[in-house]
Amino acid sequence: MDADVIIIGSGAGGGTIARALAEAGLNILILERGDYLPREWGNWDARTVFAEHRYHTDEQWRDQDGKPFSPVTGYHVGGNTKFYGAAVLRRREKDFHPRQHRDGVTPAWPISYADLAPFYDQAEGWYFTHGTAGSDPTEPPRNPYPYPPFPHEEDVALVDKALREMGLHPFPLPLALHRLEDDPQHSPCVRCPTCDGFPCMLHAKGDAEVCGIAPALRHSGVRLLTGQRVRRLQSSSDGCRVESVETDQGRFSAHLVVLAAGAVNSAALLLASANKQHPQGLANRSDQVGRNYMCHLNSACMAIKPGRENRTIFQKTLAINDFYNDSGDADYPYPLGHIQSLGKITPALLHAQQPLLPIPASAWTASHSVDWWLTTEDLPDPDNRVTLDPDGDIRLYWNPKNRESHQRLCRKWRQILHQVGFFAVFFQPMDISATAHQVGTCRFGKDPTTSVLDPFCKAHDLDNLYVVDASFMPSISAVNPSLTIIANALRVGAQISACFATGMP
């Protein structure tokens, strides 16, 4: 055996469980398809990141019609947390239970919020989380945050005040950033404008490399191999265990395998590992591997106030959940979603994403905008799925649910922003290539005929395979999934550690 545990992938799930198992004293081999993200000036350059896509994969996937597209994803140590906006919110208590939406009902989870709450606490501690407990009226019961909230800069504070005067309930956005507000001279985070969507050159972002992989590698029993694209999981002759992990570079074996390659790639790998014992793909007796792909309905929003220049540098500090549980309209008694401020759109960033817009127009628009991110929950659908084409390429079928709810959220937010004094409000919806919030392709549950994983994220069909990326989620909720992935990885890590302690890997 090459290790007690092989972990495939080093993002939010893989990086976190690597640290958890390392602290339990296990011998661990981490296989990462990519390499360390280069630390260079391009990390903070809008053109490099958003126009040239230097840090994103150059591979192409196909949509349901066979049309190729470039997914906005990358393969690095730390996974896509290297680029996330570091917004880390807990699922609401209601998100663990069936919830009625315009286009259907979400399934119940096999665990409750109470089961995950202590691991949310641990996750927030590991990932430098800032916030204010009790400031969000929809927030579940919780302990205080490890760090105080990021204070608003002037223009964001003005919006916060105006929303409160309208009877709404804005709150400080929980952020996973290593910021020392009382000691800025020695703070890793400097509140720069290149956080949301950019990698952090200062390693101040609470990402899976900084908070998971780096601490794990301080233990002598942990190894990380980069440039190891896993091609196949080979099962034993009886089909009950994963016997080896095959990569471009070689073959590895361990008592236990943890898959954390991301919801799309984990499903693709299991499908690519079909064999005589598992003809539909590994762990796929239920025919659920790859199915129920979900991704948030997301829109970026620019709100323009012509008479006021927005000099905010770090803008991503405000959120609102007044329409999370209910639209507020009697004729539409369904949830709409979540709203949070976006990292400040700068002239360079706007020009990188809209190169046909004249530079003077980009400069004026960006300097007079306050920017937002709107999220509505997608619903599970077995026809929204990951499959493999005959050539092995990934095909992603995605027809999101709750489009009307998202449109209503955008309309409602536009009306509110007009009342606050913003003259023009523009929205840009995200398309199939925006895969950052991918979940659901190997969902967990108690029934092996309708789920891929058991409640501790072990494959029903195999004795030594766990999946700890966002694949396990039966529903996506309307808040960022990162913290739930991290907390669940800690929960599964505790279970695996207990199994090894009793001699039962």
TrEMBL record:
Protein keywords: FAD, Flavoprotein, Oxidoreductase
Keyword DNA damage tagged: no
Transmembrane segments annotated in the record for this chain: none
Boundaries of every Glucose-methanol-choline oxidoreductase N-terminal domain copy: 73-297
Classification via PANTHER family: LONG-CHAIN-ALCOHOL OXIDASE
Highest taxon of source: Bacteria
Protein's organism: Acidithiobacillus ferrivorans
Glucose-methanol-choline oxidoreductase C-terminal domain residues: 380-489
Protein name: Dehydrogenase
Domain FAD-dependent oxidoreductase 2 FAD-binding as annotated: residue spans: 4-36
Keyword set includes Flavoprotein: yes
Record family assignment: Belongs to the GMC oxidoreductase family.
Single GO molecular function: flavin adenine dinucleotide binding
